[in-house]
Every structure is written in C-alpha cells, then in structure tokens.
Amino acid sequence: MKAFPPLAPGWLAAVPPSLSSAHKYWLMRPGALTAGLRKLGNVYLRVLDEYSQGAPADEARGMGIAVASPVWVREILMSVDGVDSVVARSLTPLAASHGTWQGMRRLRTRPLADMLYHDRSIERSAFVCRRLSSPVPFHATARGLRPQPADPLWARRSAFWRQGQPLLVAECFLPAFWKEVERHPAY
Q: Which of 94, 65, 160, 157 is nearest to 121 (CA)?
C-alpha cells in the first residue's frame, strides 16, 4: 500500500473515541462504500457537478501534488431508499483524467467503485477522517444539501494510486444517514 501523503490540517488517522460505534464503523469501513450502502437499501447516485479547477491546498496535500495544479473534480450525491446519505468528491490531476484515470470522466451515474475494485494494479491508502469545516473544499457542497447548521458533518478520504497517479476520494456522511443507521444498524 502506498503511504498516504502528509495529513492536511484537521484530518485524523483514527476516529475520535467520543464518536458512536456507527461512526467508527462507517468512517473506516474498508472496501467500496457503495457496496456497504447497498446492504442498507436501494442506492441512487446523482452527479452534482464535474469540472476542472486548481487543486485547493487541502486536497493537493492529500494527493502529494502542488497547490493550484489543474485537477478534474467529480461531485456526487448518494441516496439510500430516498434519503440523501453521502456526498462524495473525487479528484485527480487533469492530465491523469485524460490518461490513467480517464474512466472517471465516463462514469455518468455509475459509482466510482465500478472502476476501482476490478484492477489489481490500483493501490489504496489508509483512511483519514475529520469533521468538515469551511477550509475543506467540499464543505460548501455538503452544506448546500441543507443539513441544519448545528449538525456535524463527518467525512473520510483516501487516495487511490495507479501508475503513479493519485485519485483522491472524500465521502461526507450527511446527518440523515446517521439517523437512518441508528434506526436500522447493519454493521
């Protein structure tokens, strides 16, 4: 497994002990998140946006690339049985989105897992997690899905590596997800 680049401020290598067992499970659950969500119910994926931009400092550090390097970004929302549950943000260097990771541009409403878990040459870093706040690039996307301001937004991320090129994947569990999991634990 490739070593994860230095942690950006606020990202933790372990789930804080004060969080629930559900938080501990989902924030560090190995494998494809989509597969885990499918155990809870019917999963629907909606693409929120796809675009290029300069890599924000937090994410550049997470991929080990220079700040403001051009990257391709894909943001999606996953719902489980009609409940908006997870917002995810994936990004890779722009050149890699036309080469090594070009499949990410053709996914449409298929999950990223469809391209990640069938290729043995892909390596995944360990997970890190954090409570989202405004310096994290997709905090605004998650907040835009209208959770209450007081609701904490917990996220995890890891980097996938293929042919030396990173693909950073961050997943934010929305408050409604935690309420559903508390009612119907499946872990």
A: 160
